[in-house]
Design brief:
The complex is a heterodimer.
Chain A lengths: L1 E11 L5 E12 L4 E5 L6 H6 L9 E6 L2 E2 L5 H10 E5 L10 H10 L6 H14 L15 H13 L5 E5 L7 H18 L2 E6 L2 H7 L2 E6 L2 E7 H6 L4 H10 L21 E8 L7 H8 L3 E12 L2 E11 L2 H13 L3 E4 L2
Parallel strand pairs in A: 3-8, 3-9, 6-7, 7-8
Antiparallel strand pairs in A: 1-2, 1-4, 4-5, 9-10, 11-13, 11-14, 12-13
Helix pairs in contact in A: 3-4, 3-5, 4-5, 5-6
Chain B lengths: L7 H36 L8 H16 L2 H7 L1 H8 L4 H26 L3 H9 L4 H34 L7 H11 L4 H29 L3
């Protein structure tokens, strides 16, 4: 669906220096996928998402949408492309002078849909989709942040795009509202088969709705893959520190050297990570039943990333070396990843 | 103060003339200044239709016209006014210099008002694949409407005081009355009344403008 090849973006800063905002970006985003790009502020994620509808022009490289290099489009082609790619924003960017219904109507009206009755029907349908049927006559200033973003979403969907770009769409919202907006996005993704590309600095957002994630730092993609894999086995230091800071995975952020029980630890400190169906099976108890090893659970979490269940446990194992090795072999057999920390 | 010396029909006629001068020149000021202001805004750096050269030229012309003191402009404009409408006197004669004096001022106000419109809103419109001209007239101007009304209000008041000034070169209205009777014939009463009337007119314009701004503000 979307393919980014060898993308570069350099700016000329005010003092004349060249600043590299994006470098060597390669990405492949499939149709119907929810793809997240996460990074700290200034990492280049905003610039990256804005190249997908050419609000930002890349300095080099190609951006292919449905196989077509959009950097080569003339202005007519660009207008047509942008009508197929919806976008929502952190600060909603609604027209304050228009009512909610007129905000949603505006992209239709302004792109040549002259049949007012058809447009009105479409607006009604979109208002219902985002749960704002009662609010069509209001002005944006009368709405809450979450409601404003719902208007933003309805407006972005008006022209029936195939792709929805979300530029920090939940960053200005409180956690509860964030969840409800994310649920709405997921519903839309499933109902309409819409491809969603989002950027965020919040791990929670990625974890809730994304299928795959790319981690961007210093204008480069440092890590990417399935969300569960990237989160549970972060490779790059930036990813690790973001996972740790997010508090989403307590066991992942456990620092044995810093733990107060440092001197109380007698056995081997092990982190177990497992994804998928094994999460809800009594494998640990089966393994331990036959083993001559004592276990203590120090920290742990069993949860899910989007729809994928996972567990992550921090254990202390006490027993003979051979016995512990046997436990490890059993874990491997059940595809439970283990990592000896100490 | 002896109000009996005042010829009230003169006063009312002059008031009417002031209103006509202000109204007609306001109309032409908006007619010229609004497109000029929009052009200044869209051609500026990092704006919708960035055109460095066009912006520099327009901006220079606006600055030149704005740096000429209005009293000087009144005099400099006399031959041009004669060519345009046949006379440089009276109500009609005052209108061309008034428009030339205030249109650049209004254009600058328009430019500033448009700059206050949230960039993100314009960008959202661009992301929707809407043509630039449509964005300007369908989104930018409606979003800026309260600010534009405020700019018109300020301009109307400036025009009224300039219109009074045109009395110096034989324009009509309250300014003319104040100069001929109040100043040259030492009729202090006339001076007081004309000033009082100008104060009242300015208050009415400002009040109406503020009400309109409030009416159209959706924030």
């Amino acid at each position: 669906m979307i393919r980014i090849e060898n993308l570069h973006k350099t700016y000329r800063a005010a003092d004349g220096r060249e600043v590299e905002a994006l470098a060597d970006i390669d990405l492949d985003i499939g149709a119907g996928e929810v793809f997240g790009i996460i990074g700290r502020s200034g990492a280049g994620k905003s610039t990256l998402i804005r190249t997908l509808n050419l609000l930002e022009r890349p300095s080099a490289g190609r951006v292919l949408i449905d196989g077509e290099d959009i950097t080569q489009l003339d202005s007519e082609g660009l207008y047509a492309l942008r009508r197929r790619v919806g976008m929502i924003f952190q600060h909603f960017n609604l027209l304050n002078a228009k009512t909610v219904a007129d905000n949603i109507d505006w992209p239709l009206k302004a792109t040549g849909h002259t049949n007012a009755a058809e447009r009105a029907a479409r607006v009604k349908e979109l208002l219902a989709l985002v749960g704002l049927s009662e609010h069509g006559h209001k002005y944006p200033a009368q709405l809450s942040g979450g409601q404003k973003q719902r208007v933003g979403i309805a407006r972005a969907l008006a022209n029936r795009p195939q792709i929805l770009l979300c530029d920090e769409a939940t960053s200005a919202l409180d956690p509860e509202t964030t969840q409800s907006i994310l649920r709405l996005l997921l519903d839309i993704n499933r109902q309409l088969g819409l491809t969603i590309v989002l950027i965020t600095h919040e791990m929670q957002v990625i974890r809730t709705i994304c299928d795959r994630v790319a981690v961007i730092d210093g204008g480069r993609i440092v890590e990417s893959g399935r969300v569960a894999d990237v989160f549970l086995h972060p490779q790059h230091p930036v990813t690790r520190s973001m996972v740790a800071q997010s508090d989403a995975l307590a066991a992942a952020s456990f620092d044995p050297a810093h733990a107060y029980m440092q001197d109380k630890l007698r056995g081997t400190l092990v982190r177990l990570t497992y994804i998928g169906d094994v999460t809800y099976q009594p494998i640990l108890s089966r393994i331990m039943a036959g083993a001559k090893v004592q276990i203590t659970i120090l920290q742990g979490e069993v949860s899910s990333i989007k729809d994928v269940p996972f567990g992550q446990l921090l254990l202390e194992l006490e027993g003979g070396e051979d016995d512990i090795r046997e436990v490890f072999a059993e874990l491997d057999r059940h595809q439970i990843h283990h990592e000896v920390l100490q | 103060m002896d109000l009996s010396v005042i010829d009230w029909s003169d006063i009312w006629l002059a008031t009417w003339e002031t209103l006509v001068m202000t109204g007609v020149s306001l109309f032409f000021t908006i007619l010229l200044g609004l497109p000029l202001g929009i052009l200044l805004f869209v051609t500026a750096k990092r704006q919708l239709l960035e055109q460095g050269f066009v912006y520099t030229v327009l901006s220079f012309v606006v600055n030149v016209l704005r740096s000429v003191p209005f009293l000087i402009l009144l005099i400099v404009m006399i031959p041009v006014t004669v060519i345009l409408i046949g006379t440089s006197l009276g109500v009609e004669g005052a209108i061309p210099p008034l428009v030339v004096g205030t249109a650049p001022f209004f254009a600058r106000l328009v430019e500033n008002v448009l700059r206050e419109v949230d960039r993100g809103v314009i960008e959202a419109c661009q992301a929707m694949g809407i043509r630039t001209s449509r964005i300007i007239f369908g989104a930018l101007l409606p979003e800026a409407l309260p600010g534009l009304i405020a700019a018109v209000t300020v301009t109307a008041i400036t025009l009224m005081s300039y219109a009074a000034m045109s009395g110096v070169i034989g324009g009509g209205g309250l300014g003319d009355l104040a100069i001929r009777f109040g100043y040259q014939r030492f009729q202090t009463e006339v001076m007081v009344i004309t000033v009082a009337l100008l104060v009242v007119l300015v208050q009415i314009i400002q009040y109406s403008g503020d009400r309109l701004v409030l009416y159209f503000t959706r924030k």
